[in-house]
Amino acid sequence: MPTVVIVGAQWGDEGKGKVVDFLTEKADVVARYQGGHNAGHTVVIGGEKFVLHLVPSGIFRQGKLCIIGGGTVVDPYCLIEEIEGIKANGIDVSGRLLLSKGAHLIMPYHMAIEQANEGAKKIGTTGRGIGPAYVDKASRSGLRVGDLLYPALFRERLQTNLRHITALLKAVYGVAPEGLSPDEIYEGYMRCAGTLGQYIADTDIVVNEAIDAGKNVLFEGAQGALLDIDHGTYPYVTSSSASAGGACTGLGVGPTKIDRVLGVVKAYTTRVGGGPFPTELRGPLGETLRERGGEYGATTGRPRRCGWLDFVGLRHSVRVNGFTGLAITKLDILDGIEEIKVCTAYRYKGELMTEFPKEAAVLEAVEPVYETIEGWQEGTTGLKDFEALPPSARRYIRTIAEMLGVPVHLISTGADRGSLIMLDGQFG
């Protein structure tokens, strides 16, 4: 298992945290390449649930180096809180966690802008400032983690940004800025710098040196490929490159150094927030999936919309990520459902569509074309052998592999870290 990118193949929440946690046992380095603390990766160990937002899931495996890359955006207060929570659970992070100098900082004014903007656009953001932080990054006005090491420069750029932001909030949104004192923000972020200084590093150098030394490296993304800023259901997307290509840009690693890309696919589909969702189940069955699967945001607690597996969207995800293998999660949630549907195409204005449309307006108007697969009544929770699965469950897994043209390497049959089936020795 040399260099592997782990990517959510749907709209996020596929169970990447558990997959990364499992694969980390064989890894030396785990690196997060994009997103902010709006994401939540959940790992269940010994019946206890741990939720991470920025720190890679590999932190729960002793001796593993965890890296927060330059493609992320970081709220330093939230990161410090997360680190303290990890320590409180008896996990030592000393010498095991690095934060990129190039990661952009989420500032208090980013949260103010996002909350004002969300009131007008209704994209379904978390209001945590992630989008505006990426806007500043693209406009070359952002403050980065490395800037915390240069207090005079940080203060100067902070004051410049605040003058622009306060004018924007008043003129465009009619909001009177509150809690945006430059002195208070500066002093608070300098305190954060004192705490985080021990973790700040040139992480691109560290990652490349690890790869060149032949170490096993996992690249961990947040959200999912259908939320990618370039390849997702724009504008109902996240603000970063959640697909496999983001691992290269977010960590400073050339594409020739990537060996495998593992796509994580939930056995059904979920989506949180706004945006088109062709296979959404709005009736009792959707509620059943939500309750069985615990489909509530790990970070926000927002209920996730649930629906059938969508092969049109997944084929698009396979194409833009170049998956070499799949991990299927939450198979056990489908136990006891008599008939399982899968979407194989869309119908739009009377025409059959087999390719994922680039326009959200089109995706909102399509009608899913379904095939029905026989369900299974036996329980699959905790099973660790493929042949022990009910015959219909095995057929379902084979159907996914055949429809997507990608082999299935891992199957998750429960929340606990040990409830996994390996189908080959690639990750053993």
Model description:
It is a single chain. By secondary structure, the protein is of the alpha/beta class. It folds into 2 domains: 3-91 and 202-422, Adenylosuccinate Synthetase, subunit A, domain 3 (Adenylosuccinate Synthetase, Chain A, domain 3, Alpha-Beta Complex); 104-197, Adenylosuccinate Synthetase, subunit A, domain 2 (Orthogonal Bundle). It contains 12 helices and 20 strands. The protein has helices spanning 16-23, 76-88, 108-121, 130-138, 151-173, 182-196, 203-212, 245-251, 284-293, 311-321, 360-365, 391-404; strands spanning 3-8, 29-32, 41-45, 48-52, 65-68, 73-74, 97-100, 104-105, 200-201, 217-220, 260-266, 269-271, 305-307, 309-310, 325-329, 339-348, 351-353, 367-374, 408-412, 420-422. The strands form 5 sheets. Strands 9-7-5-2-10-1-11-15-19-20 form a 10-stranded mixed sheet, with helices on both faces. Strands 14, 16, 17 and 18 form a 4-stranded mixed sheet that branches. β16 and β17 form a beta hairpin. α3 crosses α4 and α3 (108-121) packs parallel to α5. The longest helix is centred in the middle third of the chain and has 23 residues, at 151-173. The chain is globular, with a radius of gyration of 22 Å. The model has no long low-confidence stretch (mean pLDDT 92).
